[in-house]
Amino acid sequence: MESGIWHRRRQAEAVIFDLDGVIADSESLHVKAWKILFARHGMSATEEEYEHGIGLRDVDWLEYLFARRGMDTDIGWWQDAKLAIFRDILEREGQPFPGVRDLIAALDGAGLLLAVASNSWRENIETMLRKVDALDRFRVITGHEDVTRAKPAPDIYLLTAERLGLAPSACVVVEDSPVGIAAAKAAGMRCIAVTHTLPAERLQQADRIVEDLIDSDRILRFVCAG
Predict the structure, then answer these.
(1) pLDDT tens for each residue of 49-91
(2) Which of the residues 18, 25, 58, 176 is marked catalytic?
(3) What is the CA radius of gyration of the chain?
(4) Contact call for residues 175 and 193 (beta carbons, < 8 A)
(5) Of 38, 149, 185, 187, which shows the fewest CB atoms inside 10 Å?
(6) What is the pLDDT of residues 81-107, one digit of tens each?
(7) DSSP letters along 171-205, please?
(8) 140-145-151 Cα angle (round to 5)
(9) Is 207 a catalytic residue?
(10) What φ, ψ does residue 77 adopt, rounded to 5°?
(11) Cβ(39)–Cβ(112) below 8 Å
(12) How many Å apart are CA 18 and CA 118, to the nearest integer?
């Protein structure tokens, strides 16, 4: 259907993407960075512990991890050390998920405003959007630096809506984790969950669950349905 018709019918005015696990196939790259860092210091983490970190800020995951081990350490140092390793990996190996480029183009072509709201640092977000050749399509980028309370608090989504000049109800979120879905719903936004990272049964609080982002028309229909 012609995008102009969607524009007249829709209630949503913006789509807000999470980054890791939605746009960027990067969850495994985060784990790779942690494993490199931990190996240098005689540490390791279990697959269960890595899975617990999906959707969390590094600092929050580190607090969880070291609390489990009864360790008192400088969490800021670990966060910064991992970030340096991760940025190098992301620059070399970061790739978008299939369908991401076409979906971004379809949403932009339908006149929807686009934004990213992620617990990742802004530099990581911009690196990935450049790899997708879509940095200039995004009106707002909200990252780790911009909020005190990270997901699952709604702050990052509320701030992004404010920066877009829209009511939260005019925004649809694309997420891949229960933490992100909880943040979107607490902000009063509809949420599409994609099973890039976790199975559908872990994402049941979303308004719509999709296996991937390849069918851009299907996602556009949901966004525009109001």
Answers:
(1) 999 998 888 999 999 999 999 998 999 999 999 999 999 999 8
(2) 18
(3) 17
(4) yes
(5) 149
(6) 999 999 999 989 999 999 999 999 999
(7) EEEEESSHHHHHHHHHTT-EEEEETTSS-GGG-TT
(8) 80
(9) no
(10) -65, -45
(11) no
(12) 5
The single-letter code of the amino acid at 25 is: D
Three-state DSSP at 210 gives strand
Pick the CATH number of 3-25+95-225 from 3.10.310.10, 2.115.10.20, 3.20.170.30, 3.40.50.1000: 3.40.50.1000
Phi/psi at 207 (5° precision): -80, -25
Q: At what angle do helices 178-186 and 155-164 cross, to 10 degrees?
A: 50
Strand, coil or helix: 114: strand
> 136 catalytic, yes or no?
no
Q: What is the DSSP letter of 97?
A: P
Q: What is the pLDDT of residues 125-158, one digit of tens each?
A: 999 999 999 999 999 999 999 999 999 999 999 9
Phi-psi region of 153 (alpha: psi -120 to 50; beta: other; left: phi over 0): beta
Instruction: Measure CA 184 to chain center.
Output: 11
72: helix, strand or coil: coil
Helices (H), the chain: 3-9, 27-40, 47-52, 58-69, 75-93, 100-109, 122-131, 155-164, 178-186, 216-225
Question: Backbone phi, then psi, for 20, in 5-degree steps?
Answer: -65, 125
What does residue 17 show for φ and ψ, rounded to 5 degrees? -100, 140
